[in-house]
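Inputs:
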Amino acid sequence: MSEIVVAAETETAVDVAIIGAGAAGATAAGMLAKRGISVALIASHHRHPPEYRAEKIGEAQIAMIDEAGLGAAARSVFTAFDGCWLRRFGHIVERDPKREYGGDYGAVVDAMRGALPAGVAQIVGRVETIETGPDQQFLRLADGRSVRSRLLVMSTGLSEAALKKAGMSRDVYSRHHSLTAGFDLSRPPSDFPFPSLVWAGDGPSDKLAYLTLFPIGNAMRANLFVYRSPFEDWTRELRDDPNRTLNEMMPAFRREYGELAVSGPVMIRPIDLARSSTSSATAWWRWATPS
Ligand SMILES: Cc1cc2nc3c(=O)[nH]c(=O)nc-3n(C[C@H](O)[C@H](O)[C@H](O)COP(=O)(O)OP(=O)(O)OC[C@H]3O[C@@H](n4cnc5c(N)ncnc54)[C@H](O)[C@@H]3O)c2cc1C
């Protein structure tokens, strides 16, 4: 993987400043740079910190990463697999041959950032102040450095604080709507008959949306989605005794494919249903944007 080269200038002036260097910010930076537009990409960390985020993507998403010129770098850290079995209503109802990709989110983002052209000014720091205007946007970082741009892209993920600074808001419609957990299984991918699996819940009583299993390297990775709160006993039990909790929730899995046994930590994240919006004060951004 290429090293992420960071800029050290105290003042940077570009056409487009992008705050947030996750998958969205890195992809946007690649696409703009390919079109000859000068870009500054502001990342809060030199390397993306390890965290449970997107671990499985499909061809549509990799096509966007390709369009940004970052596909080869992303593929170098993804595990590609062909085929997904869908189990619903107690049966395998579909064997889709589609190609998908599994990978560690931080490693993928770092690889994408490492492949950005040298012309992209990659700045590492935290944006503290955002001043917006019809022609010019001004950013001040915590260490005093500044960035001026004609347009500003907010790709700050779940950060409500950053949105607020830009006059935007994140309205939560359903807090802790559901919950997701990521973990490795102790059995390798070769132990299972499917390339990857989506196992949907049997009904409202099991509170299971779905469990998906897919390979990352030599491990079988699991992403579980359940209609549970982070504060209920079930969630604590999932963390403390995942094998018992999972096998109790999905007895049919054990009958069909054997014991669900977890290796390593269970990473749990609540999911909110939310929508980010722009206030009327900043709505002119839309018509200030060149078509
Ligand atoms: C648990 C979980 C599982 C998921 N699974 C999948 C999946 O399997 N497939 C899929 O397609 N999607 C999945 N998603 C969704 C996917 O992870 C997100 O849509 C995607 O990561 C969003 O990328 P982003 O670049 O917008 O945000 P992020 O990757 O969060 O990047 C935002 C960046 O902005 C930075 N930032 C914030 N404020 C500032 C500031 N003031 N100054 C500088 N930097 C700042 C943050 O530090 C961060 O690095 C999952 C999400 C979660 C939470």
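Residues 280-291 have pLDDT under 50 and may be disordered. Flag for discussion at group meeting.
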